[in-house]
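Appendix B. Raw example, untouched.
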Amino acid sequence: MSTESATARYVTVPCQFCGTRNKVNMARVAHRPKCHNDACAKPILLDRPLPLRDETFADVIAHAGVPVLVDFYADWCGPCKAMAPTLDAIAGELAGQVLVAKVNTDASPLVSQAHQIRSIPTLMVFRDGAPVAQQMGAVPRAALLELLRQGGAAV
């Protein structure tokens, strides 16, 4: 067994274009992995927040070998919009180490209710399928990085 395969951390994510489930080695995110659906074959974009819905949330969280930072937001929320560029930057900078995802609370009420989202933005870090850290409200970059550390990310 190679060293890479022994230490590889994978995520199973839906393609943002066709919805096909793809198992992605996070160590190879910089190589722009492509969707396994031959009819699609578009890049799996993990250097930006991954949109999740009621139908995809549990599967992604359960099959993530890295910490997952989830932004629970709404399109109409001013503080959510203000945080978006920081989350985009963190997703790009930590691609391969952390999966950054976002859940529109208006479009995904089931997952929002399951995690008792009462205020937006709410940021949660999941590890091994369970929430391990949470922050409500808009926060600066340093606070997001500290939240990731609390969730077990080496950032």
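End of appendix B.
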